[in-house]
Write a structure and sequence with these properties.
The protein contains eight helices and ten strands. A hairpin with a 2-residue loop joins β4 (71-76) and β5 (79-80). Strands 6-7-8-3-9-10 form a six-stranded mixed β-sheet, with helices on both faces. Helices cover 31% and strands 21% of the residues. It has helices at 56-63, 86-93, 111-121, 126-139, 144-147, 157-169, 187-202, 231-235, and strands at 17-24, 33-40, 45-50, 71-76, 79-80, 96-99, 175-178, 206-212, 244-249, 252-253. With 255 residues, the chain is an alpha/beta fold. 40% of the residues are buried.
Length: 255
């Protein structure tokens, strides 16, 4: 019997995550992604930055296995996602923490149940799932006793973002895929969550996070597309020093 793919102890020589010649098309429209080559090793913190429509969310969905590429290969722990069966993909997802608009919170359910649900799906017992959910909520700066019973439909947008991150963290994942991590967050909360995610990266968790590039609003952004890769950008406190910046523009990695 073939062994199920796992991220728990990846081969040091094998990237945790890789994309080779990845392309994504929707009908006859211009490709949403084209020519994407990427390798991410254990414990790396990769930030995918770009303007709206650059393909960031599409890339994160493909990396999470929530969508399939039109061309090219995506591998997790050396396994071609398109070649493994649905049971193997489900097994792999237990090692992933995913924050994505394609996996929204359950609006009519409580904050605590939303976070614990991810643990329960991974066959964690009821009480242990609730314990992990409370710990994850506290980790992202939310009081589980005060907010745990509130329906997610009644949360402010920034609170909902933090609940979604707590849900991504609850299973102690080996790989975090975080789409629009800092959306709707003010600077202090954003800094807090980046620090939390960086702690996971420091412990060996692989992180790929996407975000809008702050340079998009500057008049000289198009003249200097690499501005967000500059050391001073990291020094401003938005991302940790360990982060590797990948700039997307029009579905391609910017040179």
């Amino acid at each position: 019997m073939k062994k199920e793919p796992t991220l728990s102890a990846p081969n040091v020589a094998t990237p945790v995550l890789s994309a080779e010649g990845v392309e994504k098309r929707y009908g006859a429209l211009r490709p949403a992604l084209q020519g994407i080559d990427l390798q991410v090793r254990r414990g790396e913190f990769v930030v995918v930055e770009g303007p709206g429509g650059s393909g960031k969310s599409v890339l994160l969905r493909l990396l999470a296995g929530l969508d399939v590429p039109s061309a090219g290969v995506i591998r997790i722990a050396g396994e071609d996602l398109a070649a493994v069966g649905p049971l193997a993909r489900a097994h792999l997802r237990r090692s992933l923490g995913i924050l994505s608009a394609a996996a929204p919170l359950l609006a009519r359910h409580s904050v605590l149940d939303n976070v614990a649900f991810a643990a329960w799906v991974a066959d964690v017992g009821t009480d242990e799932g609730l314990r992990r959910a409370r710990a994850a909520l506290e980790l992202v700066g939310l009081d589980a006793n005060r907010l745990g019973g509130i329906r997610c439909a009644d949360l402010a947008s920034g609170e909902a973002r933090r609940v979604a991150l707590a849900r991504a963290l609850v299973n102690r994942p080996a790989l975090l895929l975080l789409d629009d991590l800092l959306e709707n967050l003010d600077a202090p909360v954003a800094a807090q969550l980046v620090a939390v995610v960086d702690q996971f990266a420091g412990a060996g968790v692989t992180v790929v996070a996407s975000t809008r590039a702050p340079a998009d609003s500057r008049p000289d952004a198009d003249l200097n597309p690499d501005a967000t890769s500059a050391p001073e950008h990291r020094a401003a406190g938005r991302w940790p020093a360990r982060a590797r910046i990948l700039r997307l523009r029009d579905g391609r990695v910017a040179a």
